[in-house]
From TrEMBL:
InterPro entries per record: AlkA_N, Alkylbase_DNA_Glycosylase/TA, DNA_glycosylase, HhH-GPD_domain
Descriptive protein name: DNA-3-methyladenine glycosylase II
EC number of the protein: 3.2.2.21
Enzyme class name: hydrolase
HhH-GPD domain sequence ranges: 154-320
UniProt catalytic activity: Hydrolysis of alkylated DNA, releasing 3-methyladenine, 3-methylguanine, 7-methylguanine and 7-methyladenine
Residue stretches spanning the membrane: none
Residue ranges annotated for the DNA-3-methyladenine glycosylase AlkA N-terminal domain, each copy included: 4-144
Any Pfam family the entry gives: HhH-GPD
Record lineage: Bacteria, Pseudomonadati, Pseudomonadota, Gammaproteobacteria, Cellvibrionales
Amino acid sequence: MRIPLELALPENYGVADILAFHGRDSEQVSERCAFVASELKAQSSQTSQSSFEKAMLWGGYPACLGIQFSGDTAAVVLAVDVSLEEDICAKKFESWRHELQIIVQRMLGLNQDVAAFLQLFSAHPDIGALILRRANLRVPLSASPFEALCWAVTGQQISVSAAVSIRRRFIQLLGTVHSGGLCCHPSPPQVAACEVALLRGIGLSKTKAQTLILLAQAIESGELALPANSDQPLNHASADALRAQLLSIRGIGPWTVNYVLLRGFAYLDGSLHGDVAVRRSLKILLGREEEISERQAQQWLTEFSPWRALVAAHLWAMHSDAVY
């Protein structure tokens, strides 16, 4: 089944930011990106387009999401490895098309009110110049909150390159291959049934392996209730409720929670003061000689609520190799 969709993009939409996030793995096991710089487009007599493909489980079936960017439009196609009877297929098509629109809008950051953020802080003495350089910066989201959770746990206290390698092996170990060749990120049931020893074999520590399994089992049992897909970001109350649930799971700390709230749910007010790359960029931004402590970063970010996580994203963008 193929489900097409077309979305309008804001003016000067940052396609490169989206492709940088989804193209972190150069081996392209689960995602495949093609980026054509605007300068090259201007020189070409033919229309050039940037695009990416991502394998993902959809309704329990292997699927491949394809998004092609051209001008102010994103052409979306979801190819699901399923063959259904005609009457069932029609009902599924409409239901899945609606869900697809919500998920892609979230993944592309189209519901993030960056214009309001810019209006508030473009003249700020500390971050005004920084955000004006990337005025249309939006935070790309993972395809699902569970994928964001797995990445956050995997990436705790290690480099981005190391986390990418482990994530790749994680997907290859437990994922399902789509007919197009890309491998889908594992689902909670697949991870919940896994043994700690298997996850340790791909480079995860014992603690991280146990945490991933505990998370998946909590989702499966209903103990951890992830909010349903919505075209609206989390509000403060729902974010606090989810934060409390996540912090009750062994191996989950404040950095992991705030990262997941951002990359999994588009919650832009999580304080990422515990992030090493954020503090390193903040030190440079403020022209400090001494290191910035977590407490100092937390206090500095307080002024920017309810946009603290978006400020962190701008600090990440100062160093492309630090972007989680």
